[in-house]
Amino acid sequence: MDKFAGIDGFLGTRASLMIDVLILIMVVVVVALAWSVWQVKYRSRYQLHKFVQVPLGISLLAVVVIFELDIRLNGWQDRAAGVVGGTVPTAVWIALGIHLACAISSLLLWPVVIVRAVRSFGSSPKPGPHSSWHKPWARVAATDMVLTAITGWVFYVVAFV
Q: How far, CA to CA in Å, does 64 sit from each of 11, 43, 133?
């Protein structure tokens, strides 16, 4: 049997190293996101919320770029098929399609929400005129990010476990 392209992951599946890393990073992202939202909503810690969200957004962008490079260079289909030159099952393509719908919308929405917040709230964030736009769109972006994580985990299980 031929060896899969790229470096093998560490979670005991057919996934590559970068896919395993991304799966774990998304756990951290969802926990950090929930904690940050809780801090701002229930404790009014606006500066802390900004301090978490801005680096989280930048880090996610960097991880996605590295992940995409790995996927473009090493592929994923052979690993999902379970054999080099194999066929990827239909369920994997469906899971991927659903995941990509969430991931792409998150990739487009998160920077808009973060950049508008940074510009509108300034260096000392607190409720103001921009809040009426930020609150509903931040909820949509956060929900979208959680859906991205969940659908990514489902894709991971369907494709590589």
A: 20, 31, 27
